[in-house]
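In this section we walk through a basic example: taking a raw amino acid sequence and producing a predicted 3D structure, encoded as discrete structure tokens. The instruction is simple. Fold the sequence below.
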Amino acid sequence: QLQASGGGLVTAGGSLRLSCAASGLTVSANSMGWFRQAPGKEREFVAARTRSGGTLYSDSVKGRFTASRDNAKNTVSLQMNSLKPEDTAVYYCAATIKGILSTYRRSGTYEYWGQGTQVTVSS
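The resulting token sequence is shown next.
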């Protein structure tokens, strides 16, 4: 199971840190992804922290968001800085043990999903 938390309401330019706690799986053995879905839009890739420790980001968040992993706590986090109103969405964490680098941006790659946490950025 994956449990996402840390969402909330923030003004543009502010920061939030999302966390995703895993149970029943080991984050270091999985590649962990972050996705988001805004109202009326499809779910889109945000970031991934791979099994090997690498990171991937969408162009829209590169330089502002940082994906990290805490093996001791079995959690992954998404530090979001310089938030913009267009970052408003429900954010999901996901896990895959099977994915490869070329597939991490696809939501269908991931076997396990958290319940989502709302992030709202006001202008």
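Looking at the output, two observations stand out. The two ends are 34 Å apart (CA to CA). The chain has no helices and eleven strands. In the next section we compare this with other chains.
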